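Assemble and predict.
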Amino acid sequence: QKEVEQNSGPLSVPEGAIASLNCTYSDRGSQSFFWYRQYSGKSPELIMSIYSNGDKEDGRFTAQLNKASQYVSLLIRDSQPSDSATYLCAAFFGNEKLTFGTGTRLTIIP
Amino acid sequence: ETGVTQTPRHLVMGMTNKKSLKCEQHLGHNAMYWYKQSAKKPLELMFVYNFKEQTENNSVPSRFSPECPNSSHLFLHLHTLQPEDSALYLCASSQVSRGGNQPQHFGDGTRLSIL
């Protein structure tokens, strides 16, 4: 079974610090990876896409992909209380099937 | 405001009722999806429609019946549901092409409670 694994947390990070979220995936052939943010009672919102090995930065967010280790991470710099949410890692297995992890609940402590 | 609209936002129904969930996407995408989200479980893909044709039925019980009349609208017809079907039902859309896998964009979901 093709899977995406995340630590469910909760992960608590002080305001202003760097939050680091990690994800591993089972299908070595996966090419496309996404991070979604989901606030309580809301739908998942896409915040980052990454397709190539290395880092991709967008504002305070950096996604890191290591295909050899089958590992994707999301770094949030200068964490804010508004970053408190559940973060979902997702990977494409096959052309259409986007597989999600269970999500990591992040709490930013003021 | 989301480009994917779902109605109703909340639905409470008995096990013998029949109801339908509606989804509409305003993003010009060619694929639409139904997901189920239960507490402490990953998002579960239920159905995929690509160019209005169903391309995936992820072993979903027949009490869930999807309908996709065009690439902008998607329905999920419900009948004789069970208490374990209580969950958040999310609709998503994406642009599917040979060039690569594009991310999916989600609606706000329908919170379904079965009495």
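The mean pLDDT of chain A is 92.
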